[in-house]
Amino acid sequence: MQASESVEVLADRAAAEGRFPEAVAQLERLSAERPDDQGVWLKLSAMLRATGQLEAALSAIDRSLALSPLDFSALLARAFLLEKMGQVGADQAFTFAIAQAPDEEQLSPAIRKALAHARSRASTYWLEMQQKLCRLLPPDLDGAGARRAERLIGNVTRQTKPFVQQPTHFSYPELPTIEVHDRERFHGLEAIEAATADIQREFDALVASRGAELVPYIQYPDQVPLRQWEALNRNKAWSALHLLKNGERVGANADLCPRTMELLASLDQPDVPGASPNALFSLLAPRTRIPPHTGVANTRLVCHLPLIVPPRCGFRVGATELEWEVGRCFVFDDTIEHEAWNDSDALRVVLIFDLWVPDLTSADRAVARAVIVGSGGMGTEAL
């Protein structure tokens, strides 16, 4: 056994027997011999703390972290040390440790308990920070400004997280990342909403018709690498009655919905051969959840007009959770992660259609159209 190894054995034995000052002496000698050994500094810090030498223990743990800045054990030990010392940085130190925590299955019961304490302290810290920052906001913020400010504070205090556009195929540069868009930017939505009862009647007639083409919303060949749709692929738990599909009119359904088609014709829908416009009735069966996913192209947005909404239905895009309200449209960016659920015992029905992103110029639209068509419209079968 080498000398440094025998010193470490002696230090470990002394620590196990509660002879902490002796363990400190051995570990200080060992740290001089092996200054780049992160584990030695971690042990030394623990023994210094056990002997009440808190400042020295903090210096030793900082040496340990200088060698391995993301070490969970060292980060957690530093947070508890700062807490014991009554220092204001303890709460933030707990958040740093939490960020590096491994799966709890890998942790001992004692460490799990310590981690639970860390999460409690961090939660209190971020809540107090959120309240403090909210008090500092200008009092005259308008609705949109207040919403953005609150989201900024939510991101800073870990209550929310930033979400970005993640189109599966077509990512047009320099477009804004907005989860839910301002309704005022889209002509025709008020007319659609005013005709909700007409649209509902046409849907009812369509469903009752023998000629209606009701298909699974998701239809991919088995070999396509889209594991997120495995449970819903070709599953009528999430079904669609297409009126417009990839730019083509679905006559069997559209013929029975003349008022709906008239209203859709007044909207600024994308006109991309083989890809858009799209419009459909989306039927989500009871006890069905649509997993988090992202759309194909950030050049278009998606609008929902809820028609039948039982209780316990919901929708999330990014960090924004919305409740469907019958007859009330909302427009969202489907290239930002979104999901939906129907936890009720009844059917949920929404009219869905796409819209051009209003920030695109006519030249931008021509470019997007050319690229999508030229690439064969890859992925556009998934509105």
Automatic annotation (TrEMBL):
TPR repeat coordinates: 38-71
Protein origin, superkingdom: Bacteria
GO cellular component: membrane
Gene3D superfamilies the record matches: B-lactam Antibiotic, Isopenicillin N Synthase, Chain, Tetratricopeptide repeat domain
One family name in Pfam for this protein: Asp_Arg_Hydrox
Family that this chain belongs to: Belongs to the aspartyl/asparaginyl beta-hydroxylase family.
Name of protein: Tetratricopeptide repeat protein
